[in-house]
């Protein structure tokens, strides 16, 4: 299975939504179809 990579602007968007808008990791992972553990590597 090929490792999925994410663009810098996508990572920044997810971090901004979490920190500035207070979105939960769970809601972001569901909306953007990413594993919730992946988001901890974005910051």
UniProtKB/TrEMBL annotation:
GO biological process, one term: DNA transposition
SUPFAM superfamilies, sorted: Homeodomain-like
Protein name: Transposase
InterPro entries (alphabetical): Homeodomain-like_sf, Transposase_8
GO terms for MF: DNA binding; transposase activity
